Amino acid sequence: MGYRRTTVERAFELAGSGDFTDIQMLRVALKKEGFDNVDQHLDSGALKQQLRRLCEAKVSKSRDAASDGSHVASTETAPDPAKPA
């Protein structure tokens, strides 16, 4: 049998993905993935604070990348050197 991540490990993975803005979203996702006792595992004030900060940092970073256009692939193509200009 393979190793299964703990609820807390998976919570940190999800928080670091940039797809979640708050703890409640993490709780819902963890429950959908089949983790048990999610509310009890994420009940610690210090843990919630760490997860909240990670969510905020990743979402903020994603927004920054979106606003500078660095995440958008260029749709322009380079000129074909075989074709005359």
Descriptive terms for the model:
mainly alpha, 85 residues
Question: What would you say this structure looks like, in words?
Answer:
The protein has 85 residues and is mainly alpha-helical. It has a domain at 7-63. The chain has helices at residues 7-15, 23-32, 38-41, 45-68. Residues 71-78 have low confidence and may be disordered.
Indicate the topology:
Layout: H1 7-15, H2 23-32, H3 38-41, H4 45-68
Helix pairs in contact: 1-2, 1-4
In a nutshell, what does this entry contain?
With 85 residues, this protein is mainly α. 55% of the residues lie in helices and 0% in strands. It contains four helices and no strands.
SSE arrangement, N to C: HHHH
Number of distinct helices: 4
Taken as a percent bin, the fraction of beta residues is under 5%
Question: How does the overall form come out from the CA principal axes?
Answer: globular
Helical fraction = 55-70%
Structural class: mainly alpha
Distance between the termini: 62 Å
- Any idea what the radius of gyration is? 20 Å
What's the mean pLDDT score? Answer: 81
- Strand tally is 0
Largest sheet: none
Low-confidence runs (pLDDT<50, min 5 residues)? 71-78
